Amino acid sequence: MTQLHVIPRHIAIVMDGNGRWAKKRFLPRLAGHKQGVEALRRCVRLCIARGVRVLTVFAFSSENWNRPAEEVSGLMNLLAGALAREVPSLHAEGVRLHFVGERASLSDKVQSGFTQAEALTGANDRLVLNVCFNYGGRSDIVQAAAHVAAQGQTMTEQSLSAAMGMAHVTDPDLIIRTGGEFRISNFLLWQAAYSELYFSPALWPDFDAADLDAAIADYAQRERRFGQTSEQITQSSASAVAI
Fold it and tell me: 108 catalytic, yes or no?
């Protein structure tokens, strides 16, 4: 376990590489997704152990409907089974679940599973787990803007942020993408404005404690300036210590 003093409060992950993991083993793509669920279970426990407060994962994008129908159907069945199997144990571990994304196009069974999981875990405070499902960063911004306009509010950064699907948590400190790709693929476009980015070569089913600790160690070496200079950050830190 990492001994780092700087732990990101909110980690977001693009869980990429399930299909390639399966292909390397001459398995159907769905086998990779099943192993990806195991990796997520492992990552949740690792984040709790390291003191991370919020974990957000990109489980299914709004563009993933374009994948082969057999794979999409398998993913939906896998999700329904995972909800029934995993939610009780997540609840027991103090995890609060939020499902972020458009739900109307999902089956009644999946929508009901989301609602029940959120209700069951709503009072937990050990870790917030946001599962972005049927989610797209651009559509999140569009729906937020439409909501603000419909309410007759002034369009500001604050009013838009409050209407986003992730309004219940702070923006991610660290965004990790696995699988060796170097893009964020329409994930948390608004919220990622000042996030630190880390790209791991590990395929998601293989992502383990060493990989997570490597990402956190890299994050700990970063200087987060939020538009300020290094000197300003140093002076601010010194003032805080003095107080």
Answer: no
